[in-house]
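Teaching assistant here, posting this on the class forum so everyone can see the example we discussed in section. The complex has three components, and the goal was to see what a joint structure prediction looks like when all of them are supplied at once.
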Amino acid sequence: MKGGGRGKEPPVEGEGTVLCVQTEGKEAACGAVEEGEEDTSEQRARRPMNAFLLFCKRHRSLVRQEHPRLDNRGATKILADWWAVLEPKEKQKYTDMAKEYKDAFMKANPGYKWCPTTNKPVKSSSQAVGNARKKVWSFPTNPTKDPPVTKKVPKTDNKPQLNFAMADPTKMGGLSLLLLAGEHALTARELSSNTSPAVVTNATKHHGKSALFQLAEISSNTHRPPAECKQEEEESTLGSLAESSGNSVPGPAVSPKNHGHAASPLFQLAEISSSTSKPSVSDGKQCGQSALFQLAEMCLASEAEKRGALCPQPAGDSAPVLPEDSSTHMDPMDQRDSPDLPPSAPSSSSSSSSSSTSPSSSASSTPTDKTPPLLSQPKNVKKKKKDCKESLKADKTQGSVKKASKKRQSSESDLDSVIEAVAKGTWGAGETPRKKARVPVSDKSPSPEPQHSPKKKTKPKVKKPLKAKEEALEEEEEEEEEEEVVVQKEEEEEEDGGKPQDLPVVKEESAISPKRDGVEAPCEKTDSLVGREDMEPHSPLEALVKCEERDAADIKTPESCGSRKSERSCKGALYKTLVSEGMLTSLRANVDRGKRGSIRGSVSDQEGAWTDEAWTFAQTSASNPKKLKKSKSKDETAPGLGKLEEEFEKKFNSLPQYSPLTFDKKNTSVAKKKKPCSTILADQVKPTKGSSASQKKTLFHKIVSKYKHKKEKPNTLDKAIAVCQSPVPEAVQKDTPCGQVALEAQRAADMLVGSQKRKARKSKITHLVRTADGRLSPAEEDKAKELSQDKDEKPCTEESLCNEEGCYAAVDRRDAPEGLPAFFSLAALAEVAAMENVHRGQRAVSLPSEGQAKDMSPQTPVLISCADQ
DNA sequence: CTGAATGAAAT
DNA sequence: ATTTCATTCAG
C-alpha cells in the first residue's frame, strides 16, 4: 500500500479526489513511517542553537543596522569577528544559554540526534524527506508532564510524538485549517510548500487524521454523524472565534466548555497520535477523512458565513471583512446554544459539502477540495537538505516547484487566501499582506505595534486607542505591560467590531510607528520591510522575523522597535485565535493568564532555568502551530507562544547585546593588549565591512585565478595569513610600515577569528579543482586570496582606502585585473592581500559611524599598479 | 537554495 | 577527520 501511495504525488485532483488523495497520502505516510524513518525524516526538531548562533541572532540586527547594505554573509563575518573578540566571560553567557537551551531541548527530545542522516531513506525522495525538518522543538511530551519518559513512543530515538505534529493540516480539516492558517500567517510562504508535499509526513498525517477525527468528535461531544457534527463544529468554531476576537481576556465563561473540551482533546489527540504509532488506519482513516473533510468544510462554511454576514458582498475576494465582526454580531453563548448563524446563508450550504454560497464562498469551499491538490504539488519546501542530499536531489528532480515555496504561489487556490485571512483575522482583507492582525495581538507583551502599513489610509476611529497603544507600546518596550495592552486590545476589538475595517486600526498604529522609526536611525530595515510587505504577500513571515531581530536590537535601542512589533502582534493574534479554538490549550492558559499579567510572572518564575514544564508546554503549544513551518519557525519570538518560548525569549533577550562600539573597543583593547599598534586601529576603524570585502574577494579571485596561485590549501597559508592578517585600519596601514605589520600580524592572528579558518569541505575542494586553464575555481581563488592576504604586509597603502562604498565602486569598476598579466608577482598578491586585510581590520574594528574615508581613492588602480609590478 | 560564520554532535 | 545542521536573509 504504502508504496503505491507515497510514491507519487497526485498532482492535481478533482474534488472527489480529496478523499482519495488523502487516503493515499495516509498510506503513503504510513509507509514512510513504517519504513522506519519515521522519526528522523518526519519532523525532526531543529537542533538547538549554539552559542555563536545565539550571539548572531542577537546581534545580527545590530550589525545590519550599522551596515545596511551588508548582506547576511557579510554580517555573519562581522559577527564572527565580534564573537572572536568577545571576551570569554561574555561569551560564557551565550555559551551557558546555549547549553541550557540544548539541555532543555534534549529533555524534550530525548532521543534527538543531531544528525539524523544515516537513514537515507530511499523513499520517494522528495516527499517524505521533504519536510523533514519541522520545527525546532519537537514537541511534546505531554504537556502535563514533561519528562521524556512520557514520550510515548520510543520507537526510535527520535521523537515519536511527532506524529501529531506531523499531521498535515491540510488534510486534517477545519481544525487543521486553523492551524494552517496560523502557520500560514507565520510563514506564509512555507505554507504552500507544506501543503504541497503531503508526502512529507505521511505517516504523521495519517495519525493526525484519525486523531483529528476523534478530536472532532470529542469537541462536538456527540458522536453524531458528520453532518451534524459539522454544525456543531461550526458553531463552536464561531464561538471560539468570537471569543477570541471579542475578548481574549475575560471572560470566563463563554468558553469554558468549549475551551475545555477542545483543549483536552487536543492533548488527547496528541497522545493518541503519538501512542498509536501507526494505527491501522485503514478504517479509521476513512472515517477520519470523511469526518475531517466535513469538518473542514464546516469550518469553511462557517467562515464563509461570517464573511457573508459581515460583508454583504461576498463577491469580493478580499473584501475587508473581519472575522471579529462575526463575533460581534453573535454572542458566543448564543451561537453555542443555537447557531443562528447565517445571516448570510450558507449554513445549509455549508452543511453540504459543496459549499457554497457565493462565489466568494465557493472559493472558501474550494479550498477544501483544492487542498489535496496543493498537497500533491511538489513542494519545494524549504527544508534544506534535511535528509541530506537526497531530499535535495529529489527536489531538484522535481524541479519546478521551488519557487512556489518562496512565495506562496499556491495562491491559486483560494485556500491560501482564506487561510491567510483567517490567520490574519481578517477574512476579507486577505490579500493585503500588510496589515497586522487586529486581533488579540497583545497576548503577550511585546508587540503591539504595527507599523507596516505605511499607508495610513483612512484611519477610522479609534484614535484614542492609538494613543493608548502608543503609550502602551512605549511602556511595553520598557517593560511589557500587559494590562494596558490588553485594554487596548479590547478597545481595538471593540472598534473593530464596530467597524468592519479593522485595517484602519492597524494603519493607525502604523502611522504612529513610522514616526518613531523616523526618529530612529535604524529604521532602514523596517522601511524596507514595510515596503516589501506591501508588495509581497509572504512578507509577514519576514516581518515577523525582523520584528524579532528588532526586538533584540531594541534592547539597545528601544526606539527602533516599533515596526516589527506589529508582526509579532499578528502572530500573537493568530495564536490567540488558535487558542481560542482550543487548538492550543496551553496557549490559551497562557493567554488567559497573560492577560492578567501573568506572563511576566510566569516568566519570572521560571526565569532561572528552563523548566521542564515550560519546555513541555512550549513545545506542545508551539509545536502544533509550527509544525508546518518547517524551516523557519521562529518559535521563540512568537508572541503568544508558550512559556517555553517566553522563557527562551526572555533569556535570549537577557543576553547581553553588545554594541558595535563595544566590539570596537574590544578589538582595540584586545589589539592593544596583544600589540601596541592596535591602538591606531581602533581609532581609525571604520565601518567598512564585509560586503566590500566580499566583493573584493571576487575581484581578487579573478586576479588570482589569472595567475593561478598555487596554494590549494589554506593551511599553509594560514600561518602566513595569521601573520599578516592584521586588522589594521586603513590609515594605519598606510602609515604603518611593514615592520609594524609584522607585529600586528600576530595580533591579527589573534583576531583572526575564523573566517577563513575553516577548511573547505571536500566537496568544495573538489569543486575547486583547477580548470584546464590552470585557473582555480572560485574557492581556490578565495584561498589564494587568503594567501595573498597573508602576505599582505606589503605596503599598499592605498588599498586601505577601500571603504564600503569605495570598495564597491572600486569593485564595480574593477575588472581590470583581468587584463593583468598572468604572472602576478607575489608582491602584487601581497598587495591585494593587504587590501583585504585592511578590510578585515576595519571590519573587525568597525565602528558604526560611517564617515570616513572616502579619501582613499579607489584601489583598483592601485591594484593594477601592483600587478604590474 | 546558497552561502558566511561557529559550534555541537554524529559519522 | 569530516559532515550536518542550527540562524539570517540578500542574491
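For the discussion questions: The domain at 51-108 of chain A is CATH 1.10.30.10 (DNA Binding (I), subunit A). The two ends of chain A are 72 Å apart (CA to CA). Think about how each of these relates to the inputs above.
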